[in-house]
Amino acid sequence: xxxxxxxxxxxxxxxxxxxxxxxRLQQDxxxxxxxxxxxxxxxxxxxxxxxxxxxVSRPRTAVQRDVDAIMQGMDRNRATTRILVEPDEGG
Length: 91
What we know:
This protein is mainly alpha-helical. The chain has a domain at about 20-45. The chain is about 55% helix and about 0% strand. The longest helix is centred in the last third of the chain and has 19 residues, at about 60-80.
């Protein structure tokens, strides 16, 4: 029984190890497998998962443009309007 366990342990230690998943993907990509190349290139697109790799600028809608114009008008009004407060004399 002990001899069988030692034999199995020795055979397991001699077994050829397979390269890791990413190494195999890289090898397949170098061999011309496009799907493997997409998988290899995928994680390298963005180093930070919380920040998008590309920002796509979308055209502003009419409502968004209107809101922007209103906000700019309010900012201009705040900058030019000064309310003079006169001190109350006696009461």
